[in-house]
Amino acid sequence: MSLLQPRFSAAFAALLATLAIAAALFAPVAAAQTSEITASRGTSPQLRGSTLDGRAFDLMSLRGKVVMVVFWSTDCAVCRDKMPELRANARGWAGQAFELVSVSTDRQRGNALSYQQLVNLTVPASQRFTTLWTGEPGYRDSFGPTATLPAAFLLDKNGQLVEQYQGRIPPEAWDRIADLL
């Protein structure tokens, strides 16, 4: 046998086969998690549906305001941890033309509702923001799938997408809001 020909043991070959099967099985999941956002800068994304408290919502009704739309899930630890920060920053813009809208991507409505009930019990009404659930009948958006949660989209007063953030929302996002106001 030549020294240039690799020798594989049966155990190593079985390990390679297992890895190949795992890659084939989980590749669709990985692809779904890393798909690109379809909304692009300069467009006016659409968002309609019912809020968790049953009110009709249409993003177009917020024209004239700077809007941050945040996609999140109760399964996302970063999302939950960042909610108080979002509330504090939104409170800083109170009385100005700014709205924060959250969109729960939870698989079960009950998870989003349970969180909302906790918020209603512990957070003053002035610090709550509109929340929609993606599984609600009639829910529609043109933001597209998000690769990472939280995902935030900043819209100017004309409803045009000007910035998007994936993962933790950087401090610069709040500076950008100030520029847009």
Protein described:
There is one protein chain. Residues 1-5 and 11-37 have low confidence and may be disordered. The chain folds into two domains: 8-37; 47-180, Glutaredoxin (3-Layer(aba) Sandwich). The relative contact order is 0.21. It is an alpha/beta fold and 181 residues long. It has a five-stranded mixed sheet with strand order 5-4-3-7-8. Strands 2-1-6 form a three-stranded antiparallel sheet, with no helix packed on it. The protein starts with 9 loop residues before the first helix and ends with a helix. Helices cover 35% and strands 21% of the residues. It is globular.
Which characteristics define this entry?
single chain; 181 residues; alpha/beta; Glutaredoxin; five-stranded mixed beta sheet; 35% helix
Give a quick precis of the structure.
The chain is α/β, with parallel strands linked by helices and 181 residues long.
Tell me the total number of β-strands: 8
Instruction: Tell me the helix content.
Output: 25-40%
**How far is it from the N-terminal to the C-terminal residue, by CA?**
75 Å
**Which structural class do the helices and strands define?**
alpha/beta
- Give unreliable regions as ranges: 1-5, 11-37
Q: What's the overall geometry?
A: globular
Element pattern in H and E: HEEEHEHEEEEH
What average pLDDT do the residues reach?
81
If you compute it from the alpha carbons, what radius of gyration comes out, rounded to the nearest whole angstrom? 21 Å
**CATH topology of the largest domain, what is it called?**
Glutaredoxin
